[in-house]
Amino acid sequence: MKDYLSFGGGVNSVALYLMMERLGMEFEAVFVNHGGDWPETYDYLQYFLATGRPVTVLEPEVNTVEKVIFNNLPAYCEHKAILPNRTHRWCTDRFKVRVVEAYIETPCFMHLGIDAGESHRARLSPVAGRENRFLLIEHGIDRDGCKRLISDAGLELPPKSGCWFCPYQGKAEFRLLRKKHPTLFCRAQKLEEARNNRPEAKSGQWKPYYLCDIPLADVIAGVDKQQGLPGMDADYPPCHCGL
Ligand code: SF4
Fold first, then answer.
1. Residues spanned by the domain of 7
2. Distance 163 CA to ligand 1 centre (A)
3. What's the rounded Cα separation, in Å, for the pair 238 and 74?
4. Do the domain assignments include residue 238?
């Protein structure tokens, strides 16, 4: 059976890649490029590829009822005025899971980068012909062990993987986004506004929904007020998106 590695470009999947390499396994790493990851993750992917390690990059094709095809998750959210949701993770399902499922040949093993410190997240595959494997757990490697595997291979540690508008992020991440990528932060803010200005939300049929429990404008309110004051971090850039 063929071995695939679900590669997200974060610490765990990079460590798993290196471990499978060390074990002399033959496998294909697959990464879904849906355009929503932090720019640092795409940079790291290029860095990783440049080390001579192949990764197959897949692109989603998600259809809307108007028969418009999207390969970009943020653009899809903007088109539909919706946000990723913590309760039912349609974003992962439509823009990642189904893309990988359409690509792989079954029967196969799918290797997932869940480490020994988070074994409660390991699940059997619901897909016939695909068996999930968790080598990091099998070998007792936790998050720190993952980092060691990467540094022992002489590689830089990857940034945390995930989307820049992911609702699983905390305030610190959104503040960092505002600092490092003000344009993306503004897009996230506009997405939030568009979703909460939908007729369903205006009529009270839908409750207000925010990526970080409170409006993103409030997440950075205190930080923004200090901008430009003596002693403030000069890296904190002004935002020109008009919000
Ligand atoms: S990282 Fe967050 S926003 Fe992106 S696909 Fe996963 S759950 Fe959705």
1. 2-152
2. 5
3. 22
4. no
- The DSSP element (H or E) to which 74 belongs, if any, is helix 73-80
Residues 20 and 137 placed together within one structural domain of the fold: yes
Residue nearest to atom 2 of ligand 1 (CA): 166
56 in ligand 1 pocket by Cβ < 6 Å?
Answer: no
237 lines ligand 1 (CB under 6 A): no
- Structure tokens given for 60: 């989603």
10-residue stretch averages of pLDDT, the chain, 243 residues long = 96 98 98 97 98 98 89 96 90 95 96 95 89 97 98 97 95 95 96 96 93 93 58 50 45
Residue 163 beta carbon below 6 angstroms from any ligand 1 atom: yes
Residues 102 and 142 grouped into a single domain? yes
Shared domain for 85 and 114, answered yes or no, is yes
Mutate to test the pocket of ligand 1, among 37, 92, 97, 160 (most ligand atoms within 8 A of CB): 92
Q: How far is the CA of 21 from the centre of ligand 1 (A)?
A: 27
If one counts every other C-beta atom within 10 angstroms of the C-beta of residue 72, the result is: 17
The long-range contacts involving 118-122, CB below 8 angstroms and separated by at least 24 positions, are none
